[in-house]
Every structure is written in structure tokens, then in C-alpha cells.
Write a structure and sequence with these properties.
- This protein is mostly helical.
- The chain has 2 domains: 50 residues; 29 residues.
- The chain is built from 2 helices and no strands.
Length: 81
């Protein structure tokens, strides 16, 4: 019932399985890092080629600032809105 060969076999099999899982995980991690590096390289290259478009939030903020300036100019000129 207490066969030491069985315990050794189970331990070695478990370690082999763990080694395979670790190798597969490491390979996947390296592939994912490589993909992200390619995306960053492509993204930085496209920023060099073309000017970046402003985001929607910055366009809304600019429109708000222009509206405020227009109102202040109207107040300075004595015009009621």
C-alpha cells in the first residue's frame, strides 16, 4: 500500500506537467509581449506620419472655451446676449 515507486512516479509526473504548463505560459507571454511591441511600433510610426486628431473631449472643451470668450467679448462690448 505504501509503495515508494508510486509516490515518486506521481511526483515526477506532476513536476513534468507543471514544467509543460510553465513553458506554454511563458511562450504565450512572450508572444503577447511581441504583439504589443509591434502595436506600439505601428502606433508610433503612424503618429510620425500623420498629425494626431484631437479627441472628442478636447474638441468639446475647446468649443466651450470659445463660447466663453465670445460671451466675454460681448459683455466687454456692452451687448446683452
Amino acid at each position: 500500500m505504501h509503495d515508494p515507486e508510486l509516490y515518486i512516479t506521481c511526483a515526477v509526473s506532476g513536476l513534468a506537467g507543471l514544467a509543460m504548463l510553465t513553458t506554454a505560459g511563458l511562450s504565450g507571454w512572450r508572444g503577447w509581449l511581441s504583439l504589443k511591441q509591434q502595436e506600439l511600433g505601428r502606433h508610433s510610426q503612424s503618429q510620425i506620419d500623420a498629425p494626431a486628431l484631437p479627441s472628442a473631449a478636447s474638441r468639446i472643451e475647446m468649443a466651450d472655451l470659445k463660447e466663453r470668450i465670445r460671451k466675454l467679448e460681448a459683455i466687454a462690448a456692452g451687448v446683452d446676449l
